[in-house]
Amino acid sequence: MADTLAGLAGQLETQVKALRGAGDDAALLAAARDAADQIERGCGARDGDARDALMMVQRWTFNAAADCWPGWSVSDKPINQDNLLAARELAERSLRLVRTLELGPLREATGVWMVGAFNLALGRYEEAISMFREAREHYVVASAPGLVLLTEGYVAIARQVGKDQASPGGEDLDQICTRIAAGGFEDGHEWIAQLRTVLDVFARRNSS
User: Fold this and answer.
1) Rounded average pLDDT over 108-122
2) What is the pLDDT of residues 119-147, one digit of tens each?
């Protein structure tokens, strides 16, 4: 048994990590949720040990959710709505911890983006666009211009897949990818490839 809350969190994080990549999204999400519940129940006074434990909870809830997002690659595997909803709840939980722990605009932006990404996967295009735009503003504050453009790309994808019903106007994905390519960002090529893949995944889903 761990002597401290942070020690217990470390043990639980190891257990959650062991399920990543195993191919059972439902088991991963349930384990991450239950482990987070166990730590948050144990948090009393907000001492350093509790903060360390909650930092781990924030990390594993985000990672477990991210592992279950279907936009990373094109697959013939059907998208499970229940898993999407459970993963979005984990993403929202991670975001709340980012804010509670005051981890800064960059982390907050990424947390907001992840919630938006699940709204996109769920076909909730207005909500997705709203979250992506909120994430963009946090990236502006964090002085991360490449990620600002990346998030604009997600807005364009949500608009295109949603057939502009949610938010007409704005640049299309090709224009944003051109701006990313011209920006000389270290990860620019990977970002463009990511955006193209995301569009492919969700455009296929809508056409099936």
Assistant:
1) 98
2) 999 999 999 999 999 999 999 999 999 99
- Mapped onto helix, strand or coil, the DSSP state of residue 143 is coil
| pLDDT score recorded for residue 31 | 96
pLDDT (0 to 100) of residue 166? 46
| Secondary structure class of 171 (helix, strand, coil) | coil
Tokens of 6: 């942070």
Q: In the chain, what percentage of residues exceed pLDDT 90?
A: 79
Tokens of 135: 């994430």
pTM: 0.91
The type of residue at 66 is A
Q: Residues 3-12: what's their mean pLDDT?
A: 90
Residue of 8, 13, 116 whose CA lies nearest to 63: 13
User: What 8-state DSSP symbol labels residue 104?
Assistant: -
Q: Which two tokens stand for residue 100?
A: 């509670």
Integer angstrom CA distances of residue 33 from 11, 21, 62, 88, 99: 15, 17, 11, 11, 18
Instruction: Assess contact for 79 and 99: CB atoms under 8 A.
Output: no
Rounded to whole angstroms, the Cα distance separating 83 from 108 reads 23
Burial annotation 156-189 (CB, 10 A radius, 16+ → b, else e): bbbbbbbeeebbeeebebeebbeebeeeebeebe
**Which 8-state DSSP code applies to residue 71?**
G
Question: Which run of H or E residues covers position 52?
Answer: helix 48-67
Query: Taking Cα atoms as reference points, which of 54, 99, 102, 101 lies closest to residue 115?
Result: 99
